[in-house]
Amino acid sequence: MTPGFNDEKNGAGESCNNVLVHNPNLDAMKEDILYHFHLGTATHDLPAMFGDVKFVCVGGSPWRMKAFIEYIGRELGLADPKTDYPNICAGTDRYAMYKVGPVLSVSHGMGIPSIAIMLHELIKLLYHARCTDVTVVRIGTSGGIGLKPGTVVITKQSVDACFQPRFEQVILGKPVVRSTELDSDLAEELLQCSKNLEDMETVVANTMCTMDFYEGQARLDGAFCSYTEEDKQKYLKEAYAAGVRNIEMESSVFAAMCKLSHIKAAVVCVTLLDRQKGDQLTSSQDVLNDYQQRPQLLVGNFIKRRINAMNRGFSSSSHGVDKAKTS
Amino acid sequence: MTPGFNDEKNGAGESCNNVLVHNPNLDAMKEDILYHFHLGTATHDLPAMFGDVKFVCVGGSPWRMKAFIEYIGRELGLADPKTDYPNICAGTDRYAMYKVGPVLSVSHGMGIPSIAIMLHELIKLLYHARCTDVTVVRIGTSGGIGLKPGTVVITKQSVDACFQPRFEQVILGKPVVRSTELDSDLAEELLQCSKNLEDMETVVANTMCTMDFYEGQARLDGAFCSYTEEDKQKYLKEAYAAGVRNIEMESSVFAAMCKLSHIKAAVVCVTLLDRQKGDQLTSSQDVLNDYQQRPQLLVGNFIKRRINAMNRGFSSSSHGVDKAKTS
Quick one: average pLDDT of A102-113? Predict the structure, then answer.
């Protein structure tokens, strides 16, 4: 085990840039098996494997997360065109994980429980690896409200199905509510990056996080539907009035868990359709593929600028984009 | 689209053995895209592809669901040892699907939202394919309470984190509660099948379905833990007193959605550890692999006996196992 990184124990306080766990039991464990990654502290040298990680990108689809690492490897000039990126979690089919330089790319499946399992183990991995100054970005797909399909939404606040910025979970049979606040400076920095890119219509807005794709998002095309088109439109209108511009299924627990760990986090999702105009994804595969690449391009631009700024000796946390622009 | 199978419209009533959807919109749609399967009514002949399906097995892991179809293919004498089973959902990485004869095997990822998306599209697929007399079984892994690791639990009732047999979901921002009742005759039939198999310690008991693997299941080894070992043991003891013998993350919505569709359903999960004795999965990979095969062997035995009984002219729905035993 890696001693000395449990913030509460060290009294390192808020100024510490380490990834925090809030679990007094961890340091006393002889071994920590990160079961769903097929990694562990006794079987893997996590500081050697992951100690240099500064950026973690997470997304639902393993294929997309592999495509992202290939893209960012090329962008950062770290890629050997002949080398395939090995899946670090090849011993399991639960999640896929790829790494190039300081960038880690991890899939999380669909829905809050699936991403929560991954985040528990990712946070412990970053903690055991003694990572510092880590930024985590979720790149995903979503349904839009009142936006042209293909628009990218950087999440301002993640809200629940009642439009409240909160994530409720049950611990020992009792409800516990956690804040879903995200880093507003990071959201602004990402928005600035979008302005450097062509065809990257981008907004900062609220994102609704639901537990279900069909009835939970007022779709009319699920196996069950007990409401009318009118009811659906009324609900989407209320969401719009609450500042919601897109709907997905992971952002609330993502925001809550990153906040608890003092990790700067952002959610960048493309909208695949306008839910006020339909429910089914009828666009061609080529169009959908083009849309899905947009969060990757935007976050790739952000990482490249941050790394360029760091290489020029600027502080990554406060000056990244602006300094890079003027250089 | 496939007209005429929407029960409410036809007035076919409860006696109908078709898979039911409860959505008046479906029959009016020109096309139904099952997006997360990469299948659709306009692009695929669903009755030709799936019309003969009588058994659907679902489980979290795509690898396990492929292993299951290979196993059941051999057991039913339908396998060509030289042929690899193609993934019917090869156009997407969200779910994997395999078929041999009347058996369909589908992965569902981890957690309620992930299995719910799959079930919406599976129920629509079975409806469009005009399937009748379908039995669906979830084969999975779980944490046990007071059971020897490797014990198989057939779910009597799926209960929530407060030990109530209910599934609550939010529709149009309002909570809706659904019953998680499973088919008790099917559970009894599966229990009888377990008696034909060696080393298949099996119980019928309640299963707790949670939204989280770590804090939601009172584990002490997550990234966050705000309670003590004593609190954990107290919670597990309360669960045990409520008849709970295992904990997993999908059974409640699985039971609720199958019940709404009039599909006979069962949940068969092996316990990988006794949660009263620990949280981490420390058993060797070989032991864990052996445990994970047990639900497959049990459900394989059940399907084989049902099919043998059907081939001998008995009704599958009422006489399957008992008649097969006496023949």
Answer: 98
Whether the Cβ atoms of residue A198 and residue A306 lie closer than 8 Å to each other: no
Chain B residues near residue A119 by CB distance under 8 angstroms: 223
The interaxial angle of helices A285-311 and A62-75, nearest 10 deg, is: 40
Tens-digit pLDDT profile for residues A12-41: 344 468 888 999 999 999 999 999 999 999
Return the pLDDT at A16.
Answer: 61
Q: How many whole angstroms separate alpha carbon A327 and alpha carbon A310?
A: 12
Write the pLDDT tens digit of every residue in A203-224. Answer: 999 999 999 999 999 999 999 9
Give B204's strand partners: B154
Rounded CA-CA distance B145/B210 in Å is 14
By CB atoms closer than 10 A (0-12, 13-18, 19+), residue B21 is buried
> In B195-312, which residue ranges form alpha helices assigned H by DSSP?
229-241, 251-260, 285-311
Residues 267-306 of B with CB under 8 A from A: 280-282
* CA-based nearest residue to A269, from A220, A183, A208, A313: A208
How would you classify the pairing of strands B264-274 and B152-159? antiparallel
Instruction: Quote ipTM for the complex.
Output: 0.92
Surface of A (75-134) touching B: CB under 8 A? 93-94, 109-114, 116-117, 119-121, 123-124, 127
pLDDT for A314: 53
Report the b/e string of A283-313 with b at 16+ CB within 10 A. eeeeebeebbbbbbbbbbbbbbbbbbbbeee
**Whether the Cβ atoms of residue B160 and residue B38 lie closer than 8 Å to each other:** no
Cα B252 from Cα B179, distance rounded (Å): 8
**Which chain B residue has its CA at the smallest distance from A215's CA?**
B171
CA dihedral over B3, B8, B10, B16, signed as positive or negative: positive
Nearest to A112 among B113, B123, B235 (CB): B113
Angle A94-B160-B145 from CA coordinates, rounded to 5°:
70
Contact with chain A for residue B318, Cβ under 8 A: no
Interatomic CA distance for residues A5 and A129, integer angstroms? 10
Q: What is the pLDDT of residues A176-196, one digit of tens each?
A: 999 999 999 999 999 999 999
The Cα B232–Cα A127 span in angstroms is: 24
The sign of the CA dihedral B199, B205, B210, B213 is negative
